Amino acid sequence: MVENIHTVFFMKKKSFDFQKLPRSFYLQPTLRVAKKLLGKLFVRKCRKELLIGKIVEVEAYRFNDKASHSYRGKTKRNEVMFAEGGTLYVYFTYGMHFCANIVTEEKGNGCAVLLRGIEPLEGIETMKTNRNNYSEKKSLSQLTNGPAKICQSFSLGRKENGTDLLGDEIFVAENNEQQDSFLIASSPRIGIREGYGEKKQWRFFLKNNRFVSVK
DNA sequence: CGACCGATTGACT
DNA sequence: GTCAATCGGTCGG
C-alpha cells in the first residue's frame, strides 16, 4: 500500500506541491529511517514563508543506547522522545543551543534521529536573519551545517518540541527534484564519550556534500 | 544542595 | 589547535 499525502502551498506567488511522508515511514526501524531521511526535504512554515532544506546528515539514537537521552527512561525533558514516530523532539543543551530530532518507531520506544546537516534551498535570507552571528562573509555552507545551526535558521525551539510532523507547520517531504543518485557514508556519532557507544556507526551523511557538519 | 557536564558553537592563539 | 559562553538535568552527599 502506498500512501500519498499531497499538500499544496501557494506562497509569495510560488506554488509548492509536497508529497508529505506518511506516518508509516516514521514507524520503521530507526536506523532505516535515519538513512532514508537523507535527501528528503525538511519543510518549515514560518509565518508567510516557507523554509526548505535537503537533509544531508543525521544520527540515530535508540533505547538501550547509552548515548541516548531515553536511556534512563522517561523524564519531563525527554518525554517527547517517547511519543509516536513522526513527532519533533527539540531539546535545549549547553545552556544556549537547541537540537532537533525526528522521533521514530512506535509510541514508547524512545528512538529518534538527530538532524545534523541540511542543505538550504528555500527561504535562505530568512534563515540568515534567524541565525545568530551569521555574516555575509561566511560561506553559505556555514548556515545549516550543525544541529544547533539548523534550529536557529529554521526557528526551532521549545515551542516546536512535540510538533506532529503530519501537520502543516513542520514536516518532511519526498524530494522529487533529486535526479542523481548519491552515496551514503557512515561514521561514529559526533560528541559521544568513550563508553557511551562511541563505536556505533550511527551517523549517516551524504558523501561530498558541503553542508555536512564534520568532514 | 553543590558539582559536574552536555547529541554545540564561535572566537581566538 | 584551545577555550569560554551559559543553564538545566543528573547525580552524589
What does this structure look like?
- With 215 residues, the chain is mainly beta.
- The chain has a single domain, classed as Roll (3-methyladenine DNA Glycosylase, Chain A), CATH 3.10.300.
- It is built from four helices and ten strands.
- The protein has helices at 23-26, 30-37, 124-130, 147-153; strands at residues 5-11, 14-20, 41-46, 49-61, 88-93, 97-104, 111-122, 170-173, 184-187, 203-206.
- The strands form two sheets. Strands 3, 4, 5, 6, 7, 8, 9 and 10 form an eight-stranded antiparallel sheet that branches. A two-stranded antiparallel ribbon has the order 1-2.
- Strand 3 and strand 4 form a beta hairpin.
- The longest helix is centred in the N-terminal third of the chain and has 8 residues, at 30-37.
- It is globular, with a radius of gyration of 16 Å.
- The N and C termini lie far apart (39 Å).
- The model has no long low-confidence stretch (mean pLDDT 94).
Stated plainly, the CATH topology is called 3-methyladenine DNA Glycosylase, Chain A
Helical content band:
10-25%
What is the succession of H and E elements? EEHHEEEEEHHEEE
What integer is the average pLDDT?
Answer: 94
Shape: globular
Q: What is Rg?
A: 16 Å
- Count of individual domains: 1
Low-confidence stretches: none
Largest sheet: 8 strands, antiparallel
CATH domain class name: Alpha Beta
